[in-house]
Design a protein that fits this description.
single chain; alpha/beta; Rossmann fold; 2 domains; eight-stranded mixed β-sheet; 11 helices; 51% helix; binds 5-O-phosphono-beta-D-ribofuranosylamine
């Protein structure tokens, strides 16, 4: 049970202990305060006392755990935890009272937003939910990992797959996962508005590039400042820039006899592979490794880290709201 909690909350054993202690002390404090307040009110009837006590405890509990968390050093965890709880409750309420939100509709006749055939995930709500557009033009293995990671998230939703290649593997993934797709064209992307209007119309809050090869136009980076990330299959600033994509990167690294390579996750600005670096992870290159071997090692790193880092960046943005 403890291991499952550790995995769910992504915390070490010690942190889990501190979190559980916070829950216990927060709960006791809240019960104590609830009883004291009831005493002050001097209500004798049990019919009123019990529901009133439950109401008081429900209201006091978040404040009590937050207070205790200041002393156990777990304030950040509980702030996020309570926000998520609030979002989940608000989401449930919406689901109870509202008809499900319609998927994004076509913005104009040239824009090929294909609506999903079924809801994308259980949340389906806007507001407290950050809606991601994944830009990908290849097989989409990273896109798949990201979709899997956020499948049951109540605060982050993969709302749109944007692709510039008809027939790309990622489109098949989008179809299977019932995620709407936007097929974009070069002319409109570079000379038009960079599809900003379409993304805004689809309520996209955050953009993830996962194997998207076109340079992102300034209109688009300006619309998503610090809200657009990319993954590069090497350790930037080396082996980046124009022409450094896919197997070209791995071939160059092997040809140079590098002892290691890795991945870089970074914010996107107007220069290829240039934005601020968020995260890097490395892998060793063994003598005799081919570019294909290296590509496989790098893919493993990407799949292991990209979804988690996206989550961290978005959680920081959500906490700033
Ligand atoms: C990844 O290696 C990523 O680093 C690069 O494009 C590749 C996409 O692979 N930007 P996939 O389509 O996600 O399998």
């Amino acid at each position: 049970m403890f291991e499952r909690l550790q995995q769910k909350w992504k915390v070490s054993g010690w942190r889990l202990l501190l979190i559980l202690v916070t829950f216990a002390l927060g709960g006791s404090l809240c019960g104590y305060l609830g009883r004291q307040l009831l005493g002050l009110l001097q209500i004798d009837s049990a019919v009123i006392r019990i529901p009133l006590y439950i109401l008081l405890v429900t209201i006091l509990w978040p404040f009590c755990v937050l207070l205790i968390s200041l002393f156990t050093g777990q304030f950040k965890f509980f702030r996020t935890y309570l926000k998520k709880m609030g979002a989940r409750m608000a989401g449930k309420k919406r689901a109870d009272h509202l008809v499900p939100q319609a998927p994004p509709t076509n913005v104009n006749n040239d824009t090929l937003i294909q609506p999903a055939t079924q809801p994308v995930n259980q949340s389906g709500a806007q507001g407290s939910v950050t809606r991601i557009a994944v830009f990908a033009s290849g097989a989409g293995s990273n896109a798949q990992k990201i979709i899997d990671y956020f499948r049951n998230s109540t605060t982050i939703q993969i709302a749109l797959i944007v692709c510039n290649k008809p027939g790309a593997g990622v489109l098949g993934i989008a179809e299977r996962e019932h995620i709407p797709t936007l097929l974009i064209e070069k002319e409109a992307f570079f000379r038009g508005n960079g599809y900003v209007d379409e993304l805004k119309a689809a309520h996209i809050d955050f953009v993830v590039l996962a194997g998207f090869l076109w340079k992102i136009p300034a209109t688009l980076t300006a619309a998503y400042p610090n809200k657009m990330v990319n993954i590069h299959p090497a350790l930037l600033p080396r082996y980046g820039g124009k022409g450094m994509y896919g197997m070209h990167v791995h071939e160059a690294i092997i040809a140079a006899g590098e002892p290691e390579s890795g991945i870089t996750i970074h914010f996107v600005d107007n220069v290829y592979d240039n934005g601020a670096i968020i995260f890097q992870a490395t892998c060793a290159i063994a003598p005799g490794d081919t570019p294909a071997d290296l590509a496989q090692k790098v893919h493993q790193l990407e799949h292991a880290h990209y979804p988690r880092i996206i989550e961290q960046v978005i959680e920081q943005l959500q906490n700033q709201r």
